[in-house]
Design a protein that fits this description.
The protein has 137 residues and is mostly helical. 66% of the residues lie in helices and 0% in strands. The protein contains five helices and no strands.
Length: 137
Amino acid sequence: MKEFHIIKTHTAIILLRLVVCALFIIHAIIRLSGDGMELFVGFLSEKGIRGSFYIVWVITLYEIIGGLLLAAGKFRRLFSLGFIILLIFVSIIFQGEAGWLAREHNNSSIEYSIALIAALIVIASSSHQSRVAHHKN
């Protein structure tokens, strides 16, 4: 029996990488607009985390710069690991109290972070030839 593929595996991994990176970049840009930075700093400070101002800036810059470099296929394993560590931190600090599943009018659940971690594991383990610059049809 002949298999039918809508998209080749390496193309799907590139698409996955671009979408995941876009999510991180957009998330950081939205945080920079309005009062997102102040709210994040305040939340971390309430949790007793020292240096919250600097932590928030490092996270935000990492999401933008790391997201752009990872989207370009640079340092996939390193940036994927960094994002995984960030997601674990977020899951413990933000989502630990909310539980596993999203509830109505509550988006603080952990399943979104778990899905991103799984996607980052796929991205990190993808072959070197899955970079956008080396993509061939």
